[in-house]
Structure formats: structure tokens, C-alpha cells
Amino acid sequence: MTTTQYRVIGSRPVRHDGADKVTGKAIYTADMKLPGMLSGFVLRSPHAHAKILSIDTSEAEAMPGVHAVVTGADFPNVEDKIADLGEGSVNLAYLSTNCMAQKKVLYRGHAVAAVAATDVHIAEEAAAKIKVEYEVLDSVTWVLDAMQDDAPLLHENLLTDSLGKKAETPSNIPVHMHFEKGDVAAGFAEADVIIEREFKTATVHQGYIEPHAVVADYNEDGRLRIWTATQGSFTCRQQTAEVLQIPLGNVLVTPCEIGGGFGGKITVYLEPTAALLSKKSGRPVRITMTRADVFEASGPTPGSYMRIKLGAKNDGTIVAGEAWLAYDAGAYPGGMIGPGCMCVFSCYDIEHAVVDGYDVCLNKPKTSAYRAPGATQVAFAVEQLVDELAEKLDMCALEIREKNAVKEGARRVDGPVYPPIGLEQCLDALKQSEHWNTPLEGPHRGRGIAAGFWFGCGLKSSAACTVNSDGTINLLEGSTDIGGSRTSIAMQLAEVLGLEAEDINPQVGDTDTAGYTDVTGGSRVTFATGMAAYEAGRDLQQQMKTLAAELWDCSAEEITVNEDGSFSGNGNQLGFKELASQLFAAGEHLVGRATVSPECPTNGFGAHIADVEVDPETGKVTILRYTTIQDAGKAIHPSYVEGQLQGGTVQGIGWALNEEYFFNDDDTMANADFLDYRVPTMLDVPMIETIIVETGNPDHPYGVRGVGETPIVPPPAALANAIYNATNTRMTELPMSPPKLWKAMQSDPSAD
Q1: In the β-sheet with 193-201, what is the strand arrangement from edge to edge?
Q2: Coil/strand/helix, residue 576
Q3: How far is the C-alpha of 55 from the C-alpha of 112, rounded, in Å?
Q4: Which terminal residue of the chain has fewer beta carbons within 10 Å of its beta carbon, N or C?
Q5: 3-class SS string, 125-136
Q6: Is the pLDDT reported for residue 157 higher than 90?
Q7: What is the C-alpha to C-alpha distance for residues 535 and 543, in angstroms, rounded to an integer?
Q8: Counting Cβ atoms within 10 Å, is residue 752 exposed (0-12), middle (13-18) or buried (19+)?
Q9: Are strands 461-467 and 591-596 parallel, antiparallel or unpaired?
Q10: Which CATH class is domain 304-456+601-747?
Q11: Angle, nearest 10°, between helix axes 530-552 and 576-585?
Q12: 320-358 residues labelled b (16+ CB within 10 A) or e (exposed)
């Protein structure tokens, strides 16, 4: 556990953007208005799979108020090239045709044309006048169906890459991954108890409140300016420049405030289209997705089919694990199967394990990251099997987890060896918790627990801090702020300099002013960009030591930076602000800079407890109590950590109990709005209790681990285990909605 006492870190200052957010003054993309700005509207395919035979835009172009119309023919041909986007990579040819279809549409909602007009109503009316002739093709939206030899092919030239070898015939399977350690056959031979089950999970959307939006202004000098809701301004710049085949330096991206992203606002959807409309019209263009567009045309998380097998000895030691995973990638390759394979057995020290994973294309929107992408699905499966092993071995569900929990030195099935980590401490906190030690009484009630993991990442981050004449700091960084990261980063700079959080004025810069910074994702911002701010502060202190040496007539080596941030040397001692003011008066301009690229994962572990009551007449699940426990390494701003744990948990509850894409017989989405796509509301969840564990991450100066993604991982499994303990019915399909649970209870003779 961390024991260092800090002045700023661990406190709860008011967030720097708080006043703007609560008063409505924060600027979101849809608030942007430039002189002469036009409104854009995107025409989308009504079919799940079809060839585009022709597009006639003449009637739309002739309408009064219409200034530009674009189709796939206006997009440059982009070569088959893989681009690294910081959190994942993308084939640029696929990215381009996802922004605007060319020869085929691959899902309902696929963009086929766009209009810019004096207002959005004219643009929508004009788009309706565009005549598109389609040849409708067979479609497929279930992952196992798409893997069949006779399935409709989405991409005629797509060959499966299996362990570096390409298949000879096309299929819908871009990639087959394989990981193993030990001898799985020998492991299962050692096992006294073996359990194997199949699991299914539905396609789920991130459900952010703010729809995708962009303002593009393509200037006559060839410079493209973009204002957008993005989780990575530099990533957005790269994608847009590559799709449009223009120099990277000709694109300026300004990130606006973000009304939620959760991984879904990394890929570009509208930016290239708005840019081309602006170029054609000679005026700025703003496009905002409708809610139906968000559901049908932006990236949800993958549906999945999983077959998991675990074997254990009579003493509870899990000795073997086998996983066969198929995740849908949506319309284009590059889904979330990799993280799924990495996370499937990540919480347990299993000597013998093998994982096979398949990325599968089908007629749904291209999948995107969603908070620990790929991990929630596998935890839903594995954590239930762990409970089943415990039941067969007459062990406590917590006891079997404590016995098998990974710790420092354990090797994951995909290769990495864990450094110091905190799963054992999370399980101990669960054991000591008031929730765990409070009996749950009453009929049709059950308690379930589950563990979860997300590896996190480092990637590149930059920060620069400019000292004002009064010793306060202007902090410029490049991480778009979704969950209060400006303040958590500012607090780390304040800690190293001996200042208060209020002395730091943090700003998220655009791509021309901030140093290169990777996406806000991967649970990396407070960790990596916070590290950059720390190093920028150290750089500033070193400069100040050199300059103070001249004032104090001594060498820089004789000057000491004290724990409170003050400077001492040659009989002098001044606080940061006092010394900064003296140096400013002497004509010195102080700017600290740093760029970091930590390669180490942050390894976030958590454990959850859920109490439920199930109505046997309807199958409705009521959550009575819920506790989320997580190792934060060191909580920079505990309120933010608690908020991340609560928010991720509620989203996981949505996965578990209600959320899913419904498809009609023609494979088009039937519930593309918040009325029919059922997210949890305040009436569906209790207050989520939180317990923050702090083990300290040795790879960060203040011990930070990423916390944003792990909390979505355990909820479906914890609730499934609780439902089983309430009903004696084991649920293997998400969501565990009332109709599905009721049906399962009727077909299970042992159900309560």
C-alpha cells in the first residue's frame, strides 16, 4: 500500500472546468458557429448489404439553399495501408469507405452521400432527393453464421491471417489469434473437476449523450481547420489527412468539450465528409449525427460467442483453461478480439492455458473500443465458471479467487509477466468490506462477486508549463478531457512544484499548439500525461536552479529543491512563487517541457459485489446493493476515481440486464434510439458504493494506475452469479433481460 503523504494529491479540489460545465458555458462542437457556416446532412443506406449501382444527385444539387453534395466519387482512392492510431490501428482504405461507401454498403446506416445547405432542414430534404439504385445482397449479423463457408462475403479479397499465414480462399474472418502456455492436455488430465460452457453477448453501444459532431473549414490556402468531439485530436488529424490524401501539417484539429466517448470517439466518421463539403462550397460546414445515426453508423462494442473450459483440482487450484472466442468486428476488420484474448484468463494464475480468437466481419457498423474493449465479454464467461468450480468443490466463491489470484511474477497466457499488482489486495478489501459481511436475507435474493482486469497502456504524452509573473502556471497539454483529467494532471504538476491545484491553469491545446499526445483512452491519461506534467515540472525546477544560482552567487549544484517545492542555497530560501517572481522581474521567461512514452501497462484490477432480487413472475432483476472495489495505485483526485468506478459499473449493469442491438429479419437495427435501446437510469441502480485500494504503481512517480476501464468488466459476471444464487438458474447470454431470464427460469427445473 502507498504510505507517502502528499499536499495536493489525494485531495478533492474543485475541477477547473466545473463552473463552465454546470453553467452551460462549456463549448461543445454543436455550439460552434462560424461566419457563413452551412449545415450538413448525411444520406445513409437503408440496407444491411447491397451493391451501389448508381447515384443521381442532380435534384439535390438543384434545390435552392444547397451549396454542395459529395459522394464516394469525391473521395480520393486510399491505398491499403495500416495506420497506428495510438490505441489500435486501422486500414486506411477501410477507414475511407466507412466514412463514405463507394461500391457497396455493408450495414444499415452506411454513408452514401452528404449535402451542405443553408440549414439542416434543407440539407435533409435535399438528401432525400438523391436517387441511389441498389442491388440488395444477402446479409449476416451473427458471428457464427458469418464464419460459415457459405456465408455472404463482405470483402471478396479478405483472406484469414492465421499465425502469420494467409488462407487461400476468402472468408469473413480477417484474423485467427492463438496463445498458449504450458501443456493444456496435461493440465486437464490433472484436473479433478472440469466445467465447459458456451456464452453469447449482444452488440452494445457506448451510449454517450453527445452525438458525433464536427465543424470543418477548408480554407482557400489549402489549410483545413476542424473543431470536433474527439478523444484524440492528433489521431483525428492523422486519420483525416490520410483519408483526404493531404499533408498532415495542413490539418488543424481543435478538440471541443466531449459529452461522453468511452472509446467510441477515436475513429473519424464525419470529419473527411465535412471537409469535402467545405472545400466544394467554399464555406464552413457543420454536421451533427442524429441519434439513429449514432446507433446505426458509429462503432459499438462487438457481440460475441465464447466457449470456455476450466479444470481444477480438489483443493481448488485451477490448473487448466481453454478459450475459443469469436468477436464480431462489424463491417470491417480490426475488432476487439486481441484484448479479449489477452484478458480472458488475466485474473488467475493458471499453469496451462490456450486461447484461440477470431475476428469476424458481418453486416453491422464497424466495432469500436468501449471501455476495456473485449474484456467484459470474457469476464462474463470465466467468472461464472470460477463460481461453478467453487460450488462443485464446496468452496466459497471468494476463497477460490483468493487461492488462484494472479500476483507479481505470474505470466499471462499472451506472454507478459506481471509486475507488482493489486488483485490480492482488492479481494482482501472485498473480504473486509461491510457489504460482504452483511447477511443477505429474503426469498429470491442472491449475492454474486466477480473480478476484472484491464491492462492499460502508456503511449506518448506531452506537456508544457509557462510561469506567470506571480508564480502561477499555465499548463498546456494534448489529452482531450473526458473525465476531469485536466485537474488530475494539474494536481500532479502542483504537487511537484509545491503549489496548490488552483495555481495551475490547465488547457487542452489544439494540434498546432500542444505537443504530440496520443488518444484519451486505454486508461492512460492521468498516468502518462500526468507523468509528462511531472517531468515538465522537474524541467522547470532545473531551469530555476540554474537561474537562482546566478542570483545567489553559487553553483546550481548547491541549490536544493525541498519537499515543499521551495529552493535553498547559499543561505537563501524562497518558495516557488517568490523565486519565480524574482526571476520574472530579472527578465527570465520560464517554460518547462516534457514528452514521455512509457511502455509499461498500468494493470488495473478490481472486484465487485452485487446483491439482487429476482421477481419469479416476470424475470425482472432489482439490484439491491452494489460495491465496486479497485486498485487505483494512487488516487490523485479520489472523487474522480469514485466517479469513474461508479460510471463504469453502471454501464456494465446496462450490458448485463438490458442493452442490446435488436435486428429485423433484413438485418437492419430496430431500436436505434434511447426509447427502445434501454440504458440504466437513476431508477434502475442503487448508489454504487466504492472502495479505493492503493497499492502504488512503481512505474509512475506518484504510483498512479489507470482506473477508467476496469469497472465495466465485472458487473455482468457479478450479476449473473447473483442471479444464479437467487434463482438457481445459470445465465449464459447477455443481456439477462426479464424475458430471457424468465424463459430460462421456466426451462430450468431446479430454478427457484
Answers
A1: 165-170, 159-162, 175-181, 352-361, 318-330, 304-312, 193-201
A2: helix
A3: 9
A4: N
A5: HHHHCCEEEEEE
A6: yes
A7: 12
A8: middle
A9: antiparallel
A10: alpha beta
A11: 60
A12: bbbbebbbbbbbbbbbbbbbbbbbbbbbbbbbbbbbbbb
Residue 214 and residue 330: Cα distance in Å, rounded? 24
Query: CA neighbours within 13 Å on the CB side: how many for 748?
Result: 16
Task: Select from 369, 293, 291 the least CA-distant residue to 330.
Answer: 369
The CB-side HSE value for 186 (13 A sphere, CA atoms) comes to: 6
Beta bridge partners of 745: none
What whole-number distance in Å separates Cα of residue 622 and Cα of residue 615? 8
Query: 335-339: which pairs have CB atoms within 8 A and are 24 or more residues apart?
Result: 335/302, 335/359, 335/360, 335/367, 336/301, 336/302, 336/367, 336/369, 336/373, 336/374, 337/175, 337/177, 337/302, 337/374, 338/177, 338/374, 339/372, 339/373, 339/374, 339/375, 339/455
* Cα–Cα nearest to 111, from 93, 88, 123, 127: 127
Tell the residue number behind the cell numbers 437503408, with chain if given.
46
Find the DSSP H helices in 24-64: 58-62
Beta-carbon contacts of residue 540 (< 8 Å; ≥ 6 apart): 465, 467, 497, 590, 591, 592
What residue segments make up the domains of the chain, in order of their start?
A: 18-25+458-596, 32-137+209-260+265-297, 304-456+601-747
* CATH pick for 18-25+458-596 out of 3.30.365.10, 2.160.10.10, 2.60.40.790, 3.40.50.1240: 3.30.365.10
Distance CA 9, CA 29 (A): 32
Write the CB contacts of 41 (distance below 8 Å, at least 6 apart in sequence): 114, 115, 117, 120, 123, 124, 126, 127, 287
In Å, how far are 227, 251, 279, 428, 605 from 511, measured between CA atoms? 11, 8, 21, 45, 33
Cα angle 716-721-727, degrees, rounded to a multiple of 5: 120
pLDDT tens digits for range 590-604: 999 999 999 999 999
Distance CA 323, CA 196 (A): 10
Nearest-10 Cα torsion for 108, 114, 119, 124 = -40
Question: Is the distance from CB of 705 to CB of 527 less than 8 angstroms?
Answer: yes
Percent pLDDT > 70 in the chain is 99
CA 70/CA 163 separation, integer angstroms: 41
Check whether domain 32-137+209-260+265-297 has CATH 3.90.1170.50, yes or no: yes
Domains 18-25+458-596 and 32-137+209-260+265-297 share a fold: no
The average pLDDT across 688-705 equals 98
Query: 506534467: which residue's cell?
Result: 533
| 3-state secondary structure (DSSP) of residue 545 | helix
> pTM (2 decimals)?
0.97
As a residue count, the chain comes to 752
Supply the pLDDT for residue 106: 98
Residue 171, all three cell numbers: 472468408
Based on the number of CB atoms within 10 Å of its own CB, is 431 exposed (0-12), middle (13-18) or buried (19 or more)?
Answer: middle
What is d(CA 367, CA 130) in angstroms, rounded to the nearest whole number? 28
Q: Which of 750, 447, 739, 395 is nearest to 609 (CA)?
A: 447
